[in-house]
Amino acid sequence: MKLFTVDEANSLIPTLRPKLEEIRAQYSSLAVYSEPATKAATAAKEFGGGGMPGGSGYVERLYEIGRIASELHDIGIQLKDYSRGLIDFPSMRDGRVVLLCWQLDDSDELEWWHELEAGFAGRQPL
Questions:
Q1: Rounded Cα–Cα distance for residues 59 and 122 (Å)
Q2: pTM for the complete prediction?
Q3: Considering only 3-12, 58-67, 81-90, which range has the smallest mean pLDDT?
Q4: Where are the domains of the chain?
């Protein structure tokens, strides 16, 4: 597991922000496909195949979300919430692994951390 210092994580935020904005935009655009996707899945189950109107757009959006999420994962960043652009950076604090917490609406520097099991609700100021 990659461990980040606060400085390392802060240095990544300018490049992460546009990626997370793209994920948020792609994720929010998926809502228009919810009903057609459900209908297409039901029809496929009942009639053995088919598709849905706009299916290629749906797949393209899912692909982009997955591509960017994989990039984040590959460098050790944990993506927690697509719609909020919420990410965690594993880090050492007082001899134990914790998570440095950041989301799109935060400033350009980390301000929060939390224990591994505490989640967003357990955030504490750095």
A1: 35
A2: 0.85
A3: 58-67
A4: 6-125
